[in-house]
Design brief:
Blueprint lengths: L2 H20 L13 E5 L4 E3 L5 H9 L3 E5 L5 H4 L4 E7 L5 H12 L3 E5 L2 H7 L9 H6 L4 E3 L3 E3 L13 E2 L14 E2 L9 E3 L3 E5 L5 E3 L13 E8 L2 E6 L15 H13 L3 E2 L1 E5 L2 E3 L6 E7 L9 E8 L3 E2 L6 E3 L8 E7 H5 L5 E11 L2 E12 L3
Parallel strand pairs: 1-3, 1-4, 4-5, 5-14, 15-24, 17-24
Antiparallel strand pairs: 2-4, 6-10, 7-12, 8-9, 11-13, 13-14, 16-18, 18-22, 19-20, 19-23, 21-22, 23-24
């Protein structure tokens, strides 16, 4: 490069610097898409924006966009949000609304449900818990709000019926990170039941369910209070009840931390995984033992960090914990995780034709999902 070219380049850079300084021009930065959540207020909820301002402000301080809605829930409306909050509703939901909620979760949305079974029973004589609006929704995801109150004779706020939940009866999970104790002075918390998922918080060694009939009547039965559920491509948190998060109680113990963690987990993006299922063609009459899958994750993640215990095929068939192996099976220079599933479990849910199989799990506490299509035949 000759001297004139160097001088010209230096002059250009000097002029750019002077203009940037004079007009306070700042470099353009790519903005991340904010996580937006919707609080339903159209079904006589007990947790609404009017009594949850402290939590809402904390969420907004963390970059969330929080909206409220008091109309009919539809699939098109929910598709514009990452997380839906339904806080202890007493008003009825139309079947179309419940279906829209289920479809929202199945397609990757996050749903936070709070409920209190005993309260519904007491104030709605002649109704059953199957009539409870929160259970009509929760049952779509294999969850149920029970009619009991969790009693704890040693750890409570204003009496044994107002239990405090504490470590080590809080499961390690992204939702419970930094959460050692939760409670709400004077609030009477109930238990939940789930068919599948992860129980996150239970009563301690001398707690039990009482008042109304309980599935956990004996001291030390550890009645569950909070659970995390995977459903389709989405996630659900079920907790009894909203009292932890209202303005009067959210600053007690680690309640606010729990509320923020719940939204963080529900709103976390899905990591796209590459999935190769072997064999490409499955024979329904085969007596083989395994179906093998090779899983790859983006370069920001490490397949060594995949939690094998969370890996499932089509949301219901768990990966075998052994054998597993890591290697570059597709020769693309990126490590893959090899896992196996019981062949007969898969054959039981397949029919002849093409089948798209989806594998989900967690890598570094983040949800991943990937799919592959195989051919299924049934030779005579």
């Amino acid at each position: 490069m000759n001297g004139k070219a160097v001088s010209g380049m230096m002059l250009t850079l000097l002029l750019i610097g002077m203009l940037t300084s004079a007009f306070n021009i700042q470099p353009v930065k790519a903005e991340s898409t904010p996580i937006n959540l919707l609080i339903d207020e159209g079904h006589s909820e007990w947790l609404v924006s009017g009594n949850a301002q402290t939590l809402i402000q904390a969420l907004e301080d963390n970059g969330y966009v929080v909206d409220t809605f008091s109309g009919t829930l539809t699939q098109s409306l929910l598709s514009t949000y990452c997380v839906l909050v339904i806080g202890t509703a007493w008003g009825s939901f139309a079947q179309s609304e419940i279906q829209a909620i289920e479809d929202f979760v199945k397609s990757g949305g996050g749903l936070w449900l709070t409920g209190l079974g005993w309260s519904w029973v007491d104030y709605h004589p002649g109704s059953t818990l199957e009539d409870y609006p929160m259970n009509k929704i929760a049952q779509r995801f294999g969850a149920f709000f029970n009619p009991d109150i969790i009693f704890d004779p040693t750890d409570y706020t204003s009496g044994p019926a107002s239990a405090i939940f504490h470590s080590p009866f809080i499961e390690s999970h992204p939702v419970t990170q930094g959460v050692m104790r939760i409670g709400a002075t004077g609030a009477l918390h109930g238990s939940i039941s789930i068919q599948t998922g992860t129980i996150l918080i239970t009563g301690d060694g001398d707690s039990y369910g009482g008042y109304h009939e309980s599935p956990y009547p004996n001291p030390g039965s550890h009645p569950p209070n909070c659970a995390a559920i995977r459903y389709g491509s989405g996630k659900v948190i079920v907790i009894s009840e909203e009292g932890f998060f209202v303005d009067n109680h959210v600053d007690e113990y680690d309640n606010k931390r729990l509320g923020l963690n719940i939204i963080d987990w529900l709103g976390a993006p899905v990591v796209p995984a590459t999935v190769d299922i072997d064999p490409d063609t499955a024979n329904l009459k085969s007596m083989g033992k395994w179906i093998t899958a090779y899983i790859g994750v983006p370069e920001d993640y490490d397949v060594n960090d995949v939690d094998i215990s969370t890996v499932k095929l089509n949301g219901e068939i768990p990966a075998e914990l052994h054998p597993t192996e890591i290697g570059d099976y597709d020769a693309d220079g990126i490590a893959d995780l090899m896992v196996k599933f019981k062949r007969q479990d898969l054959m039981a849910i397949l029919s002849v034709g093409e089948a798209t199989l989806t594998i989900t799990g967690e890598v570094d506490d983040t949800y991943f999902e990937g799919s592959d299509t195989i051919r299924v035949n049934n030779p005579h």
